[in-house]
Specification:
Pfam families: GIY_YIG_2. This is GIY-YIG catalytic domain-containing protein. The protein is mainly alpha-helical and 146 residues long. The protein contains 5 helices and 2 strands, in the order H-H-E-E-H-H-H. Strand 1 and strand 2 form a beta hairpin. Helix 2 packs across helix 3. The chain is globular, with a radius of gyration of 16 Å.
Length: 146
């Protein structure tokens, strides 16, 4: 596809709980929408992209809210939205049990932006360290009100 490379795989809904609790009501549509318009607190993909693009986009991870427990890019989320609109592409495969496809895909394809189930990946250690550095920096800064 014109030089495009698959960088990340995610699924929706997640595997139903083994304890009989209610299954996730999340849909593929809601998950993709959140990745593109949500925030880093609720999207590991946004967190990863923001960390990797922080210097280029002039954004940084920050603690927000009344308790400061949520980490987002604050006003930088809009900048990340714009970058994703211009550069990110999405494709999908529908499957009634997507959790059965996730592990074989992550194990069989080099997906540098996936961390979970991807310790074997070539970029895993570097990405983990970059995310940890951004979290550490965010925790050293004052909490933003929103």
């Amino acid at each position: 596809m014109d030089g495009m490379v698959l960088l990340y795989v995610g699924i929706s809904p997640k595997r139903p709980p083994a304890n009989g609790d209610s299954a996730s009501k999340q849909t593929l549509r809601s998950r993709v929408r959140y990745h593109h318009r949500g925030n880093a607190y609720g999207s590991t993909l946004r967190l990863t992209l923001g960390v990797l693009l922080a210097d280029e986009l002039g954004i940084g991870l920050r603690r927000v809210g009344s308790t400061g427990s949520r980490l987002t890019f604050s006003d930088g989320e809009a900048v990340l939205n714009d970058w994703m609109a211009a550069h990110a592409r999405v494709c999908w495969v529908e499957d009634p049990q997507p959790w059965l496809l996730e592990t074989p895909l992550i194990e069989g394809v080099d997906l540098p932006l996936n961390l979970a189930q991807n310790a074997h990946g070539n970029f895993h250690a570097e990405l983990s360290q970059a995310r940890a550095r951004q979290r550490e920096l965010a925790r050293s800064l004052p909490v933003l009100p929103r």
